[in-house]
Amino acid sequence: MTVLDGALLAGAALVLLGYLLVVLAGFRREFIWGVINLVPVVSLAFVLLHWHRARTGFLVSVMGLLVLGGALHGGADRTVEQTLERFGVGVDIQMPVTRPWDVELPNQALVRRIEEETGQPLEIVEYDPFAPVQPLPPASSFRLEADPAPAPRAYRMVLPAELPQLEGARMRLVLGDGVVREGNLIAVTPTSLYLQQVILGGHVAFEYRRRDIRRMEVWDRMGAAPRVPPSAEVQSLPDEPDVIFEAD
Length: 248
Known about the structure:
Blueprint: H1 3-29, H2 31-36, H3 43-49, H4 51-86, H5 108-118, E1 153-157, E2 170-175, E3 180-188, E4 192-199, E5 202-209, E6 213-221
Antiparallel strand pairs: 1-6, 2-3, 2-6, 3-4, 4-5
Helix pairs in contact: 1-4, 3-4
């Protein structure tokens, strides 16, 4: 269970606890109020008319709603959707606020086309508008050289064991819902991958959890083998003299 899943359960528990406190306060006030409070929406009338009795339960419920909303916005909505799908209930939870990783980058198609034309991934460069401008060297110092033909490149499947060797490489991730994300791999953790993607005037980094990734690919030379580090082998060292340094 992740932190977001725990926050989701904690928020739901607080909402239920607050609602039960409001119902209990209604029964203590009068039996008919307790029956009325069993209807969640109608119970708001008791909260308004008897605030001093219902305020504790109401505030607990509000706190639970805040925790629940934060967990859903952080990504726990996928857990809810997957759980409901196991019971045959298809639900698409619409978030009222757009999250950064749900927004398609404006120039991603342009970057992809440039990389296909040049045969190599674009490098992400930090843009500093306050950096001092360096003077250009004289034109006579330039010499045109014929560049060798670039090796053909294409996306290939990535093995999880080679991810630490691919930091800085161009990656393409296919998420569980079919969404495709591309960018440079800048960090790898046991639970997540971090991609740095080009945007207008700079870049932005997004975190993608491994359990949400269905397919991983890297932009590499065609036919290249996976960059899996060889297994560590103990190699026997040659015999060395006992005396390393001798006095003159």
